[in-house]
Amino acid sequence: MKTFRVVSQLVRARMVDLLSKNSRIDGRGLLDYREIKVEKGFIGRAAGSAQVSIGSTKVLAGVKVELGEPFPDVPDKGILTVNAELVPLASPAFEPGPPDENAVELARIVDRALRETETVDLKMLCIEPGRKVFVVFVDIYVLDYDGNFIDASSLASIIALSTARIRRFRVEDGKLKYEDGYMPLPIRHIPVTVTLAKPNDGPFIVDPNLEEELSLGNRISISIDELGRICGIQKLEGTLSVDEIFKAISIAKDVAPKLIDIVRRESGLNV
Amino acid sequence: MKTFRVVSQLVRARMVDLLSKNSRIDGRGLLDYREIKVEKGFIGRAAGSAQVSIGSTKVLAGVKVELGEPFPDVPDKGILTVNAELVPLASPAFEPGPPDENAVELARIVDRALRETETVDLKMLCIEPGRKVFVVFVDIYVLDYDGNFIDASSLASIIALSTARIRRFRVEDGKLKYEDGYMPLPIRHIPVTVTLAKPNDGPFIVDPNLEEELSLGNRISISIDELGRICGIQKLEGTLSVDEIFKAISIAKDVAPKLIDIVRRESGLNV
Amino acid sequence: MKTFRVVSQLVRARMVDLLSKNSRIDGRGLLDYREIKVEKGFIGRAAGSAQVSIGSTKVLAGVKVELGEPFPDVPDKGILTVNAELVPLASPAFEPGPPDENAVELARIVDRALRETETVDLKMLCIEPGRKVFVVFVDIYVLDYDGNFIDASSLASIIALSTARIRRFRVEDGKLKYEDGYMPLPIRHIPVTVTLAKPNDGPFIVDPNLEEELSLGNRISISIDELGRICGIQKLEGTLSVDEIFKAISIAKDVAPKLIDIVRRESGLNV
Amino acid sequence: MSSGFVRVDGRLPDQLRPIKMAVGVLDKADGSAYVEQGNTKVLVAVYGPRELHPKHQASLDSAIVRCRYHMAPFSTKERKTPAPSRREVELSKVIKDAVSQAIFLENFPRTSIDIFIEVLEADGGTRCASINACSLALANAGIPLRDLISSVAVGKYRGCIILDLNDEEDEAAEADMPIAMMPSLNMITLLQVNGVLTEEEFKRAFNLAVKGCMEINMIQRETLRSVYASIKGEED
Amino acid sequence: MSSGFVRVDGRLPDQLRPIKMAVGVLDKADGSAYVEQGNTKVLVAVYGPRELHPKHQASLDSAIVRCRYHMAPFSTKERKTPAPSRREVELSKVIKDAVSQAIFLENFPRTSIDIFIEVLEADGGTRCASINACSLALANAGIPLRDLISSVAVGKYRGCIILDLNDEEDEAAEADMPIAMMPSLNMITLLQVNGVLTEEEFKRAFNLAVKGCMEINMIQRETLRSVYASIKGEED
Amino acid sequence: MSSGFVRVDGRLPDQLRPIKMAVGVLDKADGSAYVEQGNTKVLVAVYGPRELHPKHQASLDSAIVRCRYHMAPFSTKERKTPAPSRREVELSKVIKDAVSQAIFLENFPRTSIDIFIEVLEADGGTRCASINACSLALANAGIPLRDLISSVAVGKYRGCIILDLNDEEDEAAEADMPIAMMPSLNMITLLQVNGVLTEEEFKRAFNLAVKGCMEINMIQRETLRSVYASIKGEED
Fold this sequence. Notes:
The complex is a heterohexamer, with 3 copies of chain A and 3 copies of chain D.
Chain A: H1 9-20, E1 36-40, E2 48-54, E3 57-68, E4 79-86, H2 101-116, E5 126-128, E6 132-144, H3 149-162, E7 165-172, E8 175-184, E9 192-198, E10 205-206, H4 210-216, E11 218-224, E12 230-235, E13 240-241, H5 242-267
Helix pairs in contact in A: 2-3, 3-5
Chain D: E1 19-23, E2 31-37, E3 40-51, E4 64-71, H1 86-100, E5 111-121, H2 126-140, E6 150-157, E7 160-163, H3 167-172, E8 175-182, E9 187-195, H4 199-235
Parallel strand pairs in D: 4-5
Antiparallel strand pairs in D: 1-2, 2-3, 3-5, 6-7, 6-8, 8-9
Helix pairs in contact in D: 1-2
């Protein structure tokens, strides 16, 4: 990533000063997300898709389901694979080419929350153990980058997965038989990710915008599922004290249900 | 591609002035090719090969035929694949490395004319549908670049294909049986490509040399087969009016038979 | 490789002057190796491993043995493959990335001596001809580079191979059956490599350190096995006269037995 | 021409698919546009004119245009791997060649104008939709243009010349021919023929394509006008 | 906590594996360290602060840190191909983020500090062992540090919170959580959770990890002290 | 030596294959040469001395030589993929090392001399034919040389030492040994042994190779002389 335009010292000072008064540069409360908009299903060639905007950050996630071979060490499970691209449309700081460390980290954060909660029941996607399974591809496209692409990507991915429809099938003696109509993927949980940032001296905020990301120096992403369980943490830039980390988790647990409700509303998912 | 030595304004002005008098900087008529020389079959390890010189532009095409698997969507056909390399021997502007956009465009122009006319009868190259077919590799090597590598490559490719010899075979119950002696590939058509260029105000020429390519600004490649059919067009640099395009096609149709005659003469092909 | 710090003219002059008096800048005799230390078997996940230090040059070689398919042209033999990495820990001149020409040359020099002498009896590593064989991977890691990584790599590789242990197996009707315990790889020879260098006017030395490599200009690596046979030569930088080459071989034959003794001592190999 | 032949999606031979266009859809890009033609969906961002790194690639007397046409993995029937295919490399070049013609490059020496195209869904005509979107995105970036560039494909399908092929038609077509033009200047900036056509068929197809470009040009102009009007409205 | 639960290798839940540390193990690097935790073995070299090429990547007001975490082909159960995996790319980044926090980067504008990590054998906890070694190698290179960084993983294994997982435990664990901290400053510089934990489990695990880091920090300090002492000894 | 042993192609053990050489065969290159030895065909172009980009790779006190040995996909029995193999990387290096020795590099500081080799057909001895062609192409480019470099391989084939192996012989040989030398200076610039030889066999093989190089050198000189003569002729 190229360096971003530097945020001026003045803006940074004003931002920190406002934070000390529990207020933010764009008028939000400390623990408020920017407006979240969801548009789902508009990529007809994908099994599922969702475009999530958080303020002017915009992420499109698409789900494709194809046949493939299972991994040798888990012969009786389908495969889930998450890929992220920071396409150069989204920011003057993104460049064409294979995923850089930021794109890889993003994909792996989203992947881990889905994988560790067993959100997609991969056993249901096995056709012939050791030979043929369904492969679920989640492709994340960051289209417009104004900060916090992690939460937007995580949200777009779980909505795309939980609204995806594949051809109805059954398995008979290890053979795949398609039936009429469509069915959802077997989705068991709703993990979402909450990203927090803070200045060295000052309170946590959630959903940092780009200026805040560039200014505040300390950032952490926490994934929480609908049972309130921690299903992923990634400390990003900076340092945090032990107490600050406990505080961050407590905030994330408070905030996550709002994101989970969005997923439930968009998908009709009943978990 | 690195930038070429710039053609001086003087040369360019003189070139355009001459063109307005229906004359060219190297004395050719507007619709004349430079001298075309063909040397065929000199790569013994290739099934077919041809080196075509057009003036000092020199292209070597080689054909190899190997066994492979068909594409899943056309299980009963062999495979034709065209690859082009602008090797750094040919020009100070060419650099080592994987094919750049110019090499890819060249390969795809040649490929399209062969593929769309079904010049190689790929059905004849199927051995066991869905499992085993012959793969025909056409590899284009631009060895010396003094303009118009497209026509030279197209000509070298069709001559290499139509003079190629493979071991005589028959297919019995999906099994390949080799017989004594050699046989030609099943070649059904003779597509050739005619490239034209023109200044913004001035007439078309065919077969631009390097100085003309760099100076004239507007260029188009038109593929024509022995039936007079258009089997490929690629507008290259610049812009052309509707009438100019119709004019270009008309010229290409007039000029193509001379190239087709060369192919017939070299290959003995009777189509 | 980036350019190394240049050795000062003064050091170089002193070095050549000393050589003319049969003496070296670090006090060694012309045909003496620096101290050679071997630590073997310390990578538990490798079938065999050896770290060889020659002075402060340090190379770690690891051997892995896995199942794979034989090459089509030698269906009844296992596979030996040698890979070398000049990891950037070892020198300010090494950079991360795929092996450069120096790493490739190193791997191929070590590979050739092992392959041409049939040091590993690959016929013994065939399980089912044409389908299943053992693949022996030798991975060379140059960890600290103070000159002469070729001899150190060659020595580390043959010690890692000759001390490797794999699960005891037998083959019954083309099926692999594992038995209790471990067995060595079938090692038949002990090829080692001796690298020599010389100034344009002056005598040969063996085992040049980094300063000598950078200063002396002419270098050659000669591989010799326990039968005194030449099993590989690579002239590296510079030029040598015909007589000088004969001289170099004669020195290498004199010096090699000391290296071969080290291998015998470390491995208990009885060839 | 519309001789009773009805197409797989019910259109007449000379009928475009439904079109949606929008500009300024991205926040960070200097200009952007979104175009839908039938199910084909493309998003384009323009950055520039901006300083070029590395500098030795810059041109002393004009801007250079860089263009990347890229397909999202979920845009195609089978998932597309993200690494650029040869087809994408070629289309990046021909789109760049087509679009550059409209830009006053000499106004911006030593700079680059970077055009990034993402095909979000591919159902035929993606290069044409891309060019239409590029044109809007360049205008949206405030880059002065000789003319808007409008693009559409025609083809020969079961012997009939048809306009604006979708993917199903494209795959079965005897020939497919995308063109792009500057309608006011009547200049062609892209022309490709994939397939076999007689000269007479080519002329008919070409004329139909020109007619299609004119229609698309109207929609492009309307799209920009409505944005401009709304901006003016806001200013008032 | 050490409630009688005995682990695959006989350790108690809160027990570290045997640790070996050494510094200055490489001749050419500006600083280096070797760390063994159980069977996990890592070697780290530091080059810098040094001039940065290409120069436009340099920062005018601080050093930049570059870090490569790489696994030797023979370090893993199945041979690892030398090309960097996505996992290695991510770990390079998180280790860089963790370690940079301790360096006075502003002291070395326009330079790079390059950290090269080779995992020689991987038996769990490689990123933590790497961070421990980085810290020692930076100190060995004479680069002034805010604090040593100490790192260890904890995990939930069959319902029990355990310290310093080996590979067998890691693969079977319900959750795995590497942390790194600057113990004197009580600041966390790396924290990842892979797996599912309740908030209460997280707190227990986290506190155990902090305790582990403190133990490791003692060994790091002892390692540096003994070297320093021996150098002093030599000087005398 | 030529003890009645007859080779697969009917040659005597110490007999070269038929050789064709030509210089100035390419129009755009600064120097070029084409060499055939038996069925092996190589084409070489030289560009330079020319300015080097990026400049930080340049050397202040000499030219640097860059060399690419590359095989055409149709040059080999099985089609070769265009991406460079490890063998091609190694041969690029050893050919560069062999050829550089003849060039007065110190005459052209800050420049590069770029040598591009394409093997058009490979039937054994491609590196030697390449070196022979490089030498001619460098001379053709007007670059002053210490001496022409001449190269040939020898081998041990069914116990017999033979000269200038073709591919069939090479694959069956017990040892294969390419050498290159500057005959007037009697200096060896390339020497490789692939295979197993006793010291006595090595000496016999080596002496045969030197003899072969001398023969090739005559043909190289004749090739250049005839060109020079014809140029002189034209001038007259």
